[in-house]
Amino acid sequence: MSPPLAAILSLSQLMVESNAGTMFELVKELHDGAEELKRHTTNPISLNAGCELFIAFVTLFPHESDSFAELKTELVKQGQKYAKEAISYRNKIAELMLDFIKDDSVILTHSYSRVVMRALLHAHKTKRISVYVTEARPRGLGVKTHEVLTAVGIPCTVVLDSAVAYVMDKVDFVLVGSEAVVESGGLINAVGSNQMAIIAKAAHKPFYALAESYKFHRLFPLSQYDLPTHNPSILSFPSLPPRPFVTPPTTSGVSPPIAKSGIDESLNVTPTSSSERSMSAEMTAKNPDVDYTRPDLISLVFSDVGILTPEAISQYLVAMFAG
Amino acid sequence: MSADLHGSQRAVETLVSKLRRRQVVGSREAALETVLVLRQVVSKARFSNIDQLISLIRSVGKRLVEAQPKEHSVGNTVRKLLHHIREEYNTAMTGNASSSKTVYSISNFVLQGQPRKQNVAPKSEATLTLKENDPDDPDSFARVLKPVLMEAIQDVLDELETVYDNISKNAKDHIHSDEIILTIGHSKTVETFLKVAAHHRSFTVIVAETGPSYNGHEMARALSSAGISSFLVPDSSIYAIMSRVNKVIIGAHAILANGGMFAITGSLLAANAARVHSTPVVVCAGQFKLTPLWNLYHDFGALDFADPSSVLGFEEGNLVDKVDVLNPYYDYVGPELVDVFITNDGDHPPSSVYRLIKETYDDDDHEL
């Protein structure tokens, strides 16, 4: 179950157990609950989308009932009903996507996304497709995609994140899932999506995003660093020790090169037996998890609400949350 | 009674065969004929609840669309009619005490935004008492609803008949004096637009020949007979003269859901040349050309083909077997190349087309 739906269900549960007497208290409790949820996860964006949607719905619900308790039960019922229905949204999106996938298409996708999987498996029933998937470091979820697709019989190859430009000319279109779709009409997804979108635009390939409607988020990021997941430690440079530099260690390079070490050590580290090196956990921590793709790079967004251009998403979000 | 039914069925069959044989020429004519046939169908139809009527119209619409799938205005008219019918039915039913309340759910909230009052003026001023599926009097529902539906259909017909006038209403505001306009093909909409503007302004029109159909020749003749100074140029010079052109005004065959359009071959050439020179591209098209479809096939799949002999004649006997000749009749022009659509319902940029489609048609009707 995806985070926004889980958030909606847990907030509904919160309402059941709350003893708020007025709308104001109830909404305050919901806000506190949402804050609590967000505190416990490193990537709160999609969670946030679900919470905001539910809270906006609760606030704007037209109530004809006179008793507050009745209203609460109605809201809880709505929340649970929505979560149940929302499971079917992926099928709806897969159906919408089907017409856009031609026979013999070569598709490029990023990391692992359940809605993209559903769309690809659905298309596989009636059409021949082959898929390139990026490794999506550091979590490497692209390999999971590869396993799932190969098990079903779809030809699939994992490509390096750095090989996206290399492979782009062979691809018919790019298909990605989403963590959230934001008010500007842009997309927040696993890091690497923005890169892929820029390269797709340069190569004149369509870039399609699949997003269920509970991922529509009220955020309006002005740049990559405007995202709530961004913090000062990401992409920060290490603080170097004051000069003069220490003499290089005489031991052979057993310890992997650490970011905080002096500049010269990297020059004097003797190569390890393997020819590949990998980043340390500390290095990886300085890298972002998600990035923001601008709306002008996205061709279409497929959602259970319909097939929308990025401007249309913008209008939807304004209609939902503004006023 | 059954003769009436056969009468309307015969009308449908006649239109189906005319569409299949391409005897109906032009999107507006196709739309008009469709409305007339559907009016006959609705007036002779027998139904005791709204679903029967809607499925009847959908089945008729499906047959018409399948007869000529590239003539999008047929399907659009059917969808528009269904939308009107549902609207009339809903306003009639809200007057009824026994109407079911639509429960407001989160998915509705996402779909429509905040709950807001419907401020659409209902055609039926008097609250109609509608009884669906009445066992004693099965025709009561139909009897009560039909006059309202006939009015709605008449509205659609009126709109189609006044398309050219409405589009040309503000023609003089779009063209300044002494401008040089480029147009391509022979679109009646653009012709009327330019003729109306000519009453108030003096300007020059450059018409591209539009091979291989050479519709541009008729356009140039029609414009010059109206006193507009026109030049006829071959298609190859479109790019060359673009730096002197102030505006490109073209017609469309169909406007797609993403804001792109199908237009006569040569439009993509003109639009690209205009983009390079930052010249505005203005498209004049009636609202009945708005199609809730997408350009699913980036190559020829969605287009229509004309007779290849106008490209390579059969006299070239020895070439005919060796060469594959394609004569696509339409181009797909993407939304990024068009600046504004002038329709009988106002002017809209390509990015608002999705909203127009949402307002004009119902979501269920996208697939007939």
Automatic annotation (TrEMBL), chain A:
Q: Read off the Pfam families from this record.
A: IF-2B (PF01008)
Per the UniProt record, which residue ranges are transmembrane?
none
Subcellular localization = Cytoplasm, Cytosol
Q: What is its main location?
A: cytoplasm
Swiss-Prot/TrEMBL keywords: Cytoplasm, Initiation factor, Protein biosynthesis
Subunit text? Component of the translation initiation factor 2B (eIF2B) complex which is a heterodecamer of two sets of five different subunits: alpha, beta, gamma, delta and epsilon. Subunits alpha, beta and delta comprise a regulatory subcomplex and subunits epsilon and gamma comprise a catalytic subcomplex. Within the complex, the hexameric regulatory complex resides at the center, with the two heterodimeric catalytic subcomplexes bound on opposite sides.
Name the PANTHER family on file: TRANSLATION INITIATION FACTOR EIF-2B SUBUNIT ALPHA
The family line of this record is:
Belongs to the eIF-2B alpha/beta/delta subunits family.
Identify this protein by name: Translation initiation factor eIF2B subunit alpha
From TrEMBL, chain B:
Q: Which InterPro entries match?
A: eIF2B_beta_subunit, IF-2B-related, IF_2B-like_C, NagB/RpiA_transferase-like
- Cellular location(s): Cytoplasm, Cytosol
Taxonomy, superkingdom = Eukaryota
Q: Which UniProt keywords apply?
A: Cytoplasm, Initiation factor, Protein biosynthesis
Q: In its keyword annotation, does this UniProt entry include Transmembrane?
A: no
Q: How does it assemble?
A: Component of the translation initiation factor 2B (eIF2B) complex which is a heterodecamer of two sets of five different subunits: alpha, beta, gamma, delta and epsilon. Subunits alpha, beta and delta comprise a regulatory subcomplex and subunits epsilon and gamma comprise a catalytic subcomplex. Within the complex, the hexameric regulatory complex resides at the center, with the two heterodimeric catalytic subcomplexes bound on opposite sides.
The protein, known as: Translation initiation factor eIF2B subunit beta
Provenance organism? Somion occarium
